[in-house]
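Quiz preparation item.
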């Protein structure tokens, strides 16, 4: 089952051990607002086939709280295992779209290693920080190409030259936490709207566009159907808030 995850929805609650000394995820207005809880309330097979103690019943993979787009859910444990095995084997093709500050070039590959470096606090919200060369880093790789380019002149920035934005298609080859957001910031092209992995200029542009979450959308997943053993492509159009920003840039 493929679902369209809206921005602001936490995929699943963290384990009690993971929450020791931490605040809730910034995107969650209430602790119960998770995809996992929605599935239990609306999909009978989830309640029937998964334990009530399972924190992520049927959820094959995850998306960041404020990343929108397509997410896969399995209705039984056998299908869940088969699909997760494909993610681990990296045979699932994942495609995202993002709007970034700056221009990374027509196409290329972002490579590096991402590792947790502890916690810090910004604007009263605890979150994990990531770095390229610290504490057991893991390799991360993402292919990208530019779909379109835009020039904007937000208030407070250079009005004569303008600011270049690029609309990218991203194909991550690995699945590290916050991978696309970290890699694009490291490349000097932070995602517009991202409150965590940002620069002063990207925050100014985000404000001028009225965007208060990262312009990052999971547009398609290609995987093998465990039952039919056929390749399946699931697609998701841009979320309404991102489409509105895109339309304003084109207009």
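Solution:
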């Amino acid at each position: 089952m493929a679902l369209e995850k809206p921005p602001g929805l936490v995929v699943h609650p963290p384990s009690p051990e993971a929450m020791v000394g931490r605040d809730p995820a910034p995107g969650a207005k209430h602790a119960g607002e998770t995809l996992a809880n929605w599935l239990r309330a609306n999909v009978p097979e989830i309640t029937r086939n998964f334990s009530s103690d399972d924190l992520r019943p049927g959820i094959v993979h995850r998306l960041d709280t404020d990343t929108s787009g397509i997410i896969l859910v399995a209705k039984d444990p056998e299908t869940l295992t088969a699909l997760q095995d494909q993610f681990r084997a990296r045979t699932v093709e994942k495609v995202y779209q993002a709007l970034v500050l700056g221009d990374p070039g027509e196409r290329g590959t972002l490579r590096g290693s991402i590792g947790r470096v502890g916690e810090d606090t910004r604007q009263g919200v605890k979150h994990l920080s990531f770095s390229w060369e610290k504490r057991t880093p893991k390799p991360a790789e993402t292919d990208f190409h530019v779909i379109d380019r835009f020039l904007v002149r937000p208030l407070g920035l250079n009005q004569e030259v303008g600011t270049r934005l690029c609309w990218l298609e991203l194909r991550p080859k690995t699945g590290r936490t916050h991978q696309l957001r970290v890699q694009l910031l490291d490349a000097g092209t932070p995602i517009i709207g991202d409150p965590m992995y940002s620069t002063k200029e990207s925050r100014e542009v985000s404000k001028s566009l009225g965007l208060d979450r990262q312009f990052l959308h999971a547009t398609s997943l290609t995987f093998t159907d465990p039952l039919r053993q056929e390749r399946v492509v699931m697609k998701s159009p841009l979320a309404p808030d991102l489409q509105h920003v895109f339309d304003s840039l084109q207009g």
